[in-house]
Design a protein that fits this description.
alpha/beta; 25 helices; Rossmann fold; 7-stranded mixed sheet; 19 strands; about 650 residues
Length: about 650
């Protein structure tokens, strides 16, 4: 969607140099136009909405006063940078947001010289900006290093590590802007949130200091000199206004709070702190979702918007001799996340030890209803996966049965705690890894492609993945019977219901530790699929049936422990076996199968691994990225047509 003609000021701005030519008194009107463009565009493309709408004035003020082609600006998480993209030579492409070949939904250093990082996880901006500031000093370069950090991200342990380090320095120029909107995706939690509430209610904090300075300077003859000598005393008085001020105790010069939607205040505050050397924290109060109709009534303050459904389906060109796709017989069902949320409630009703832990993602992980129904057994750790995992270990030590619902990509952040606090202690913590696999438009920062490889190497953990929604429930119940840690990975998107898997009408085989499940038989090869890729394998089998080729499809169920005997028997029944997973081929499920064969050796079958290639993937739709990775049913079917004279497709 191109910017509309109802944005006359925005039409004049293609880059920050154009912005600087806009008179200051017209900047509020420009901000209103920016909000209109963001809302109109994201309503069509989908994407993060509330965070960007809340930082419009802040973004305009930053670009009005700084030069971020030279100065460095680091956005924490990066999903709040939509206004920044519009002001930095990307407005003509803004309608391509989160589409293949289009703009990323996050800041992206490969996309623009105005972006310092590809930033998709929270809490690390202060560390990155501090590193830039230190490097500039060492190289003798004079420029500003600015980090915009949300109040929820400020609760990350790594953010405090950065503040602790920066506060001990006096030679580096670092500005940390605390974007205080009281929200992450859900309400911000913790003691820091309470502390910020005190600061918000005490807007006279810096005014008190200024008033004292003015009073002293007004003393005839000696006022100015006395003011300079009493600087420390003034600071003591200021600390009496807000006792035990956290940021000043860490060594930062604190300014604020400032109304982040008052352009005059924003410009005045930024002009003041821009002149200062050393480490400075500017506290800005903003409203997440500002300008989004009804955002004040939403639990997530309009955190994200879903794209509008396309009026016409994209036409995929069909090459000659390519098998025509089989249309699944099932209707779109519930998402994997919804299945998980329902399963949590069922478990909690039966077992009072069961509790849910999330890291600031109660809705994204499907736990909103659980939170309302079992508030005493719902724990939100904030954006602190390390803390969430360590806390789960303590709960398990006490006899509870914690289930940590954390996206695959975010569990990486708590990796050390998974090993030290859970694996080494052999504790029965369940890791429910949502968004395992390719996630589509969120791209490289959010793809969950490494959980099998980074967990499979840890002794004593059980790793499994369901083929459908009911099997997810069964695996959750099974995990609670295990004496040690376990992980269940499942995908983004809808999950099949029982009996909806294409071409499978067999009898359900009860879950057994480390045992696979044969879904259909065939004599012309086999696909050993892991998790939700079972559906793809069955679709491939249906395609091949039309060619008179009949393959066996096996639901692996477990990656660790692997069904070694089942794998060996399968590879002795067939000439060709394909392993199929929505995970990196490096160290994934296919690697586990090959390790089994190498250890138990030789088998009849030629074994091929199908998974995600060893590359960083750009953002695109899930269908597009599956096509790019060669993981569609068509691609699977082709593996069994190659070298067959009657069915060569290439």
């Amino acid at each position: 969607m191109e910017p509309t003609s109802s944005t006359p000021l925005f039409d004049q701005v293609d880059n920050p140099a154009d912005l600087k030519r806009i008179p200051r008194e017209q900047l509020p009107a420009l901000c209103a136009e920016l909000r209109k463009v963001i809302l109109d565009t994201v309503s069509i493309t989908g994407g993060h909405l509330g965070s960007g709408m809340g930082v419009v004035e802040l973004t305009v003020a930053l670009h009005y006063l700084f030069d971020f082609k030279d100065d460095r600006l680091v956005w924490d998480v990066g999903h709040q940078c939509y206004p920044h993209k519009l002001l930095t030579e990307r407005k003509a492409r803004f309608h391509t947001l989160r589409q293949k070949g289009g703009l990323s939904g996050f800041s992206n250093k490969w996309e623009s010289p105005y972006d310092a990082y590809l930033m998709g996880h929270a809490g690390t901006a202060a560390s990155a900006a501090l590193g830039i500031a230190m490097g500039d000093r060492m190289l003798g370069k004079k420029r500003h290093s600015v980090a915009v950090v949300g109040d929820a991200a400020m609760g990350c342990g790594v953010a405090f590590e950065a503040l602790n380090h920066a506060g001990s320095l006096d030679k580096d120029r670092l500005l940390v802007i605390l974007n205080d909107n009281r929200w992450s995706i859900a309400k911000t939690v913790g003691a820091l949130s309470r502390h910020l509430n005190k600061l918000r209610s005490g807007t006279f904090y810096n005014r008190a200091k200024e008033a004292v300075h003015s009073l002293i300077q007004s003393i005839p003859l000696v006022g100015k000199g006395l003011d300079e000598k009493l600087g420390d005393a003034v600071d003591m008085l200021k600390n009496m206004v807000v006792p035990g001020h956290l940021f000043e105790s860490l060594g930062f010069r604190y300014f604020g709070p400032v109304d982040g939607h008052d352009m005059g205040q924003m410009l005045e505050a930024l002009e003041a702190v821009k002149k200062l050397d050393g480490v400075v924290l500017l506290h800005v109060i903003t409203e997440k979702g500002k300008g989004v109709p009804g955002s004040e009534d939403r639990y997530d303050r309009a955190h994200a918007a879903k794209p509008q459904p396309k009026k016409k389906q994209e036409k995929v060109p069909v090459e000659p001799c390519v098998l025509q796709p089989v249309v699944p017989v099932s209707k779109p069902g519930r998402s994997w996340t919804e299945w998980f949320g329902e399963g949590m409630q069922l478990l909690a009703e039966k077992d009072p030890r069961v509790l849910a832990i999330t890291a600031a993602m109660p809705d994204g992980t499907g736990l909103m209803e659980f939170r309302d129904k079992f508030p005493e057994r719902f724990l939100d750790a904030g954006i602190a996966e390390q803390h969430a995992v360590a806390m789960a270990s303590g709960l398990a030590t006490a006899g509870m049965r914690p289930i940590c619902a954390i996206y695959s990509t975010f569990l990486q952040r708590g990796y050390d705690q998974v090993f030290q606090e859970v694996i080494l202690q052999r504790l029965p913590v369940v890791f429910a890894m949502d968004r395992g696999g390719l996630v589509g438009e969120d791209g490289a920062t959010h793809n969950g492609l490494y959980d099998i490889s980074y967990l499979r190497c840890m002794p004593g953990i059980v790793l499994m993945s369901p083929k459908d929604g009911p099997e997810l429930h069964e695996m959750m119940q099974f995990a609670l019977t295990l004496p040690g840690p376990s992980g269940i990975r499942y995908a983004r998107g809808n999950a099949p219901n029982a009996g909806e898997l294409l071409g499978w009408h067999g009898k359900h085989q009860p879950l057994q530790l480390g045992k696979m499940e044969v879904l259909r038989t065939g004599n012309d090869g086999a696909v050993l699929a892991y998790g939700h890729m079972v559906q793809t394998a069955l679709e491939a089998a249906a395609l091949l049936d039309k060619k008179g080729i009949h393959i066996e499809v096996v639901n692996a169920r477990f990656c660790k422990p692997l069904d070694d005997q089942g794998v060996l028997a399968l590879c002795d029944r067939h000439d060709r076996v394909v392993t199929l997973e929505d995970h990196s081929k490096v160290g994934g499920f296919g690697s586990a199968v090959l390790e089994c064969l190498a250890a138990n050796g030789p088998v009849r079958a030629q074994v091929q691994v199908m998974g995600v290639p060893d590359e960083l993937l750009e953002h695109m739709s899930r269908a597009q990225v599956l096509e790019h990775c060669g993981l569609t049913a068509q691609h699977v079917a082709e593996r069994f047509l190659v070298d067959r004279p009657s069915g060569v497709v290439r």
